[in-house]
Design goal:
The complex is a heterodimer of chains A (about 250) and B (about 60). Chain A has one domain. Helix content of chain A is about 75%, strand content about 0%. Chain A contains eight helices and no strands. The longest helix of chain A is centred in the first third of the chain and has 33 residues, at about 10-45. The relative contact order of chain A is 0.17. Classes of the chains: A mainly alpha (about 250), B mainly alpha (about 60). The interface of A and B includes residues 45, 98, 226, 230 and 242 of A.
């Protein structure tokens, strides 16, 4: 049986499909969050160097990873929308931005609260921290630019260009700890070497990473559904949907 | 078990402010985001209700006139 994947690039079918997916991902996020917090606070041992302060890692690293990853996904869909003029792709990019900005803020916030006891300062203008701050400004810039343009399709195009240019910042953030001398420690987890932490700490962190993924998917789908309704309000299928809802 | 008591748990070895400051703000952001989206949806639904009704009236008028 052939599945017609292009069916889901239509806002109408995507709207009904994503409606079924939101609760699934939200529940997965809640379950993983509880599991991750349990491992993080009750199974993972005290760190021999940092004491209990290291437990910030269970938020800090997932938030920082999501902030970069979501930017790439946002730029990807914005680019697809720009290249192929697909409405849904651009709506998805618009829906990702606030969640990406939130994770960027959380990475910076938890980083400051971790930096104070460990480095003795909330903030330093070093490569890692500064490039992550620039990421926050890119997200805010993307959202403000789109909000400032009345015509949604033009806003999509302008935002896409900004998002695509900003992609250059992602490798800078990722490799900043190697390219420059920085206060920030190097990668704790990488593909080509053993992780530099205890197994239970790593387990807890990875569960929290999966929880953030599930949360992001749920919340972004939830937001894109509202955006679809806002933008497609003039169409026949939305009118049909409203009628059905009113009849219920 | 790592913790001897709840007070030890909340103290986080003297780093309580930093650890809980991170977690509380994170949860506030997450819950806030979900509420904001629900609110946006509700506003839209209300708005639609109005548009829907006015459309209805318009069509009613058209048929009567």
């Amino acid at each position: 049986m052939a599945i017609n994947w292009f069916k889901y690039s239509s806002p109408a079918s995507f709207y009904s499909l994503s409606g079924k997916m939101v609760p699934i991902f939200m529940w997965l996020a809640v379950v993983l969050l509880i599991a991750g917090m349990y491992v993080g606070f009750f199974v993972a041992p005290t760190d021999f160097q940092q004491g209990e302060a290291y437990r910030i890692i269970f938020i800090h690293v997932p938030a920082a990873w999501m902030s970069m990853f979501l930017y790439l996904v946002m730029a990807f869909w914005a680019g697809i929308g720009l290249a192929f003029n697909t409405r849904l792709s651009s709506m998805l990019a618009t829906a990702i931005a606030p969640t990406g900005a939130m994770f960027t803020f959380l990475a910076l916030w938890t980083g400051a609260l971790w930096g104070k006891p460990m480095w003795g300062t909330w903030w330093v203008w070093d490569a890692r921290l500064t490039s992550e701050l620039i990421l926050l400004f890119l997200y805010i810039g993307f959202m403000s630019l789109q909000a400032a343009i009345d015509d949604p399709r033009r806003a999509d195009k302008a935002g896409a260009i900004l998002a695509l240019v900003g992609v250059v910042n992602i490798p800078i953030i990722y490799f900043s700890v190697q390219w420059w001398n920085t206060l920030h420690q190097g990668a704790s987890v990488s593909l080509n070497q053993a992780p530099a932490m205890a197994t239970t700490m790593l387990t807890g962190m990875l569960i929290m990473v999966f929880a953030s993924w599930m949360y992001s998917i749920a919340v972004i789908l939830k937001r894109v559904r509202v955006i679809i309704l806002e933008r497609e309000s003039h169409t026949a299928w939305v009118a049909e949907l409203r009628k059905k809802e009113a009849a219920r | 078990m790592i913790w001897e008591s709840w007070s030890e748990f909340f103290a986080m070895g003297g780093y309580g402010v930093y650890v809980w400051g991170s977690y509380i703000v994170t949860f506030a952001c997450v819950i806030g985001e979900v509420l904001l989206i629900s609110n946006r949806r509700r506003t839209l639904d209300k708005h639609y209700g109005l548009i829907h009704d006015s459309n209805k009236k318009e069509t009613d008028n058209e048929t009567t006139s």
